[in-house]
## 1
Amino acid sequence: MAFFKKFFSHVIPQKDPDKSTIPVKDKPKPPYYGTVTPYPKFDATSDASTLQSAIKKVDKDVIFAVLVKRSNEQRQKIKAVYEASTGQSLDKALQSALHSHLEDLALALISTPAHFDAYLFRKATKGLGTREHILVEILATRTNQEIRDLKRVYKEVYKTELEEVIKSETSGDFTAALLAMLKATKDESTEINNDLAKRDSEILFEAGEKIKGTNVSAFIEILTTRSAPQLCKTFQQYATVSDITLPKALQLELKGDIEDCLIDIVKCSWNTSAFFAEKLHHAMKGLGTNEDALIRVLVSRSEVDLKKIVQEYKAMYGVSLQEAIRRDTKEHFESALLALCGPE
């Protein structure tokens, strides 16, 4: 939390707003920051047979030893072989063998990323109340292609357009912001345009602090379409036209769901790993544990940037994520989550 408090109160000095990042053509593939990697001696038939036996015996150790040590792509192959050889749905088989949070974790692990996101979106909008922060978390941290996949799968599974769900479950500027992210048109390049950053910072200043009221549409347009590196440059440029940081301006100018939404976008743009570290911290802070949040973050980021999230957690809270999990969870659920986190 201190990381973002510092960000909200002061201008972060590490990045020079007068220096552009020059993109390098044909640059090497970026390093992998996931904690789950493809199992080297993978055999889908053998794993499916092992899983079938473990489910029949309700051997939780074996079930999760298979699931957490295989990549998602490998799990899909295991699922296909299992269902072809047994004639039974793997989802239903796991539901019959497991219960509560272990069941939720197992089902999350055997879902494709798009199906898991669709399920999360459905769960966040179904029933009494809408879990707005989950909708923002998904749309603000997925790539354009992942959002397009989410929309396609949601329509296939739940027989309705995601746009209609958002319109029916949210309102006002918050709806506009979610729909803007759902367009999946965010710039994903690493190139930074200093002139654009300067222009955007002035537009945001004019739309907020300088006028009575707030031109929210200007904030939505810029924050939902610019790349993360470009927004970081804009945050720095904003400090040259205002006495306060952009996140602080958002806190002063906006209230409610739209304030939380745009601030989360700012956090993700500056440091996605720190954003998720904070989510995990809140899931285990105080009395009780939000197991759903632990599953959501650890599974969805295990092949993306969980290694960096683990590092940020230790830097932000002075204790390892693994130690925090050991304090707040137990037995098979604890061991499965620790396996997803990787070694300390």
## 2
Amino acid sequence: MENYNQTSTDFILLGLFPSSRFGKFLFILIFLIFLIALFGNLFMILLIFMDTLLHTPMYFLLSQLSFIDLNYISTIVPKMAYNFLFEDKSISFIGCGIQSFFFLTLGGAETLLLMFMAYDRYVAICFPLHYLIKISRKVCMLMIIGSRIMGSIHSCAHTTYAFCIPYCKSRAINHFFCDVPAMLTLACMDTWIYEYTVFMSTIFFLLLPFIGIACSYGRVLFAVYHMHSTRGRKKAYSTCSTHLTVVTFYYMPFAYTYLRPRSFCTPTEDKALAVFYTILTPMLNPVIYSLRNKEVIGALRRLIHRFCSAKLSTNILA
């Protein structure tokens, strides 16, 4: 290992799976989760695209969340699976940079998108008569483009710094992907200034959006409490609880990981927390939004009915 590190610019990802039966079981479990996330998010995107009743700002934003999650988990798991199956833990310098860039871009975009989705629900419930004016298609496009641009700028700054600093002999990253804080432990220089910028960017991309989401839903719950319609109250509670579940699963492990001082972090704990926001959340989002959403279930029934009707018509004509 030492000789390899001295003669190669590649990094080594120590990975998540131990070399044991438990490691194989964990790999199979995570690969199944990856497949559920892959097909679940594809299903949500196609369903929203094909059903005209779901062509609303809320579901347009939801389709974009599925698109981000689809790319997000695909940035991490395939490389992790390849390393485990072929017993090759190396990743090229450029490959590591690309993975880190997309991870940070998609992660930053998702945090902002979840905040915009909370704002969408706030306007829909608190200002229903002005909803189509305040949340027009143009506004939705600005939300999507803005979240991606901000995520890209954030990612460029961190990735550029991380791949311009000198690294010591060991290039073994104690993680299952190229996470910048894990890479900094290999640096040959003091990185306290950069760690401070990581802390500040975490506040901007995690803490402030989370406060915005909390404020939005605080106002929403206050408005829902004063609703006279029982049906409307149940629908609002269902929508809000669904979104809050997604937000909690995504924000809490992310914030806990990046807001702690590095001296309190351990590689094992960091990897366990990273599983939540890189693997579990992309899988849970389509499951939560589909199983707990009557409109999505209704759209699925209409799609199945259309498919069965088309197949029956084809059989009759044949």
